[in-house]
Amino acid sequence: MKKTPTAKKTSILIVDDDRHLLQSMGGWMAEQGFEVGLAHDCQTAEAHLAQNEFDLALVDLHLGADDGFSVLEHCRKHYPQTIVLLMTGYATVETGIEAVRAGAFDLLTKPLIDEEILIAIDRALSQQLVIEENQQLKAQLDSRFGMENIIANDARMQKLFDVVDSVANTKATVLVTGESGTGKSLLARAIHRRSDRRDAPFIEVACGALPENLLESELFGHVAGAFTGATSNKEGKFKQADGGTIFLDEIGTASPAMQVKLLRVLQELEFEQVGGSETFRVNTRIILATNEDLSKAVSEGTFRQDLYYRVNVINLELPSLKERVTDIPVLANYFLNKVCEETGRQIGGFEPNAMSALQNYNWPGNVRELQNIVERAVLLGKSDTIQLADLPAHISNNAMPTHSFVSTATAGRPQTLKEALEGPERQIILQVLRQNNWNRNETADQLGVNRTTLYKKMKKLGLDDPNLAASDR
């Protein structure tokens, strides 16, 4: 292996009960530029591992009364960063399979040839480097995209993300509320991805899409003969999500009988399969979602009060898109780029009046509706930008004429890009001001600008007129 003068030396622990071979191999490896530790039995090996960090351990299978598998198991349990290569003079196919299954990188056969040892070490270290790089990239991606493609600049959404970070690694039950299409499923996945359960299953169940008898079987499983058509045993979603997360969407549609069963699972994480008597216990994180007002359902007697208190431990409420008007341009452009990438279309963006129409629309279908509208505009549009005419009539009718915000000093000549963008900017600020009842501090926070910047923009765009605010009250 070639070593650069500045590179950290690779440290190797050699474990072999043949002391002559141990000294000989240790001396040769030191000559190759490795830092070497020597051990003739399991106890000495464990002592070395406790005192030093080794990149790799080269361990003989037969260590007198001991076994090289013991060193391998010890490394796997306490020092997983140490790669283990086993070696033996009595290798068989079965031994090799057993070694790899136990977690060894490879099994080398004695007598060892110098070049083969170096190749094996190089291969092991190279693979470890790839694993570490993948882990670093994964951590970076989790940090950057851990919100599962939830695109948001809105201040309330940012606060929501902070709460997600706080609760993701707990076992607490989470209730996600919000209108249909706001991204409740994405938020549930984000919680899972940011938890220590990220490598375990994430199971999603749309409770409202199944009748009660099928929902119970879907969640808890059934035994053969439990009902007509149950010809074999079926494992339920709770069992499949053991160690991971189960996401129960549309929980407000659950029947009274199902609510009782869910309450028990939430409290004890225990259940029986349909038609079965065996009790199963799972370690499953539970996230629920609804677009209904559960507190109202409790007062009306359609949702159990004890279940409501149990599911409402942590409530994450997703604001509707009409309450996140500043996110519309960001989301629209995100969906635009995504569709262009998938279809190969080359579209430069949205015309100002088209974006104005998007920002003035009420969005009853929320983010999901916006995504569909952008996809439609890309697929049906004929220009290299999204025009007002590319939008459905019920949306294009909401466009604000871009010239309506241009000062009289610019009348009679073509608009500059800066002037053309003032219309949508004014509309965004106006809508957020109205949402916050003209509270400038809250508006500045939601827009992500300081108060001085907001005041200057309001004056420039004619929004500092007291009569304008008074007309909204």
Provide structural commentary.
The protein folds into 3 domains: 11-138, Response regulator (Rossmann fold); 155-319, Rossmann fold (3-Layer(aba) Sandwich), CATH 3.40.50; 323-469, Helicase, Ruva Protein, domain 3, CATH 1.10.8. The chain is 48% helix and 13% strand. It contains 20 helices and 16 strands. The longest helix is centred in the N-terminal third of the chain and has 32 residues, at 114-145.
The helix/strand class is alpha/beta
In angstroms, what separates the terminal alpha carbons? Answer: 77 Å
Reported by name, the CATH topology of the largest domain is: Rossmann fold
What average pLDDT do the residues reach? 85
Assess the beta-strand content as a share of residues. Answer: 5-15%
Largest sheet: 5 strands, parallel
Task: Please tell me the CATH architecture of the largest domain by its name.
Answer: 3-Layer(aba) Sandwich
**Radius of gyration over alpha carbons?**
32 Å
Percentage of residues assigned to helices: 40-55%
Shape: extended
- Please tally the helical runs, counting DSSP H or I stretches of 4 or more residues: 20
Low-confidence stretches: 1-7, 402-413
CATH H-tier superfamily of the largest domain: P-loop containing nucleotide triphosphate hydrolases
> Would you state the CATH class of the largest domain?
Alpha Beta
Domain count: 3
Number of strands: 16
Question: How is the largest sheet built, in terms of strand order?
Answer: 2-1-3-6-7
